[in-house]
Amino acid sequence: MFVYVDGSNRITAYNPNDMSGNTGWYEVQETIGEPITEEHGVPIYKYRNGHVVSRSKAEIDADIPEPTPPVPSEMEQVKQQLAEQQVLINEQADALIELADLIVGGE
Predict the structure, then answer these.
(1) How far is 52 from 59, CA to CA, in rounded Å?
(2) Is 102 helix (H, G, I), strand (E, B) or coil?
(3) What is the arithmetic mean of pLDDT over 96-106?
(4) Fewer CB within 10 A of the end CB, N or C, for the chain?
(5) Are 76 and 84 in contact (CB under 8 A)?
(6) Which strand ranges, in their side-by-side order, compose the sheet holding 2-5?
(7) pLDDT band at 107 (very low <50, low <70, confident <90, very high)
(8) Residue ranges of the domains in the chain?
C-alpha cells in the first residue's frame, strides 16, 4: 500500500497501486482504510519512520480549523442597513426637536 504524505507528515490519501514514481507517495506495510480523516477533514494518521502511526488527539485538535462565522443572508444585510439608518434618522429627529425648542422657546 502507498500513502500520500503532506509537508507535515500527515497521511492525506492512500492507494493500493504502485505510486513509487510520484512525489509524496511512500510504500508502507500497514493497511489503512476509511476514514483517514476525522469529521473536520483533519488527517488521523501520520507517516513516521516508514510506518503509519495514529496521530494524537492533541495533534488532530491543533489542525481543526476555527469555525468561520456564517455570512449573513441578503435579507439580514438589508435589515441591518435599515436598523442603522433608523438610528441615524432618530438622532437627526432628536437634533431637530432640540433646535426647534431653542428657536421657539428662546433658550
Answers:
(1) 15
(2) helix
(3) 86
(4) C
(5) no
(6) 11-15, 2-5, 25-27
(7) low
(8) 2-63, 69-107
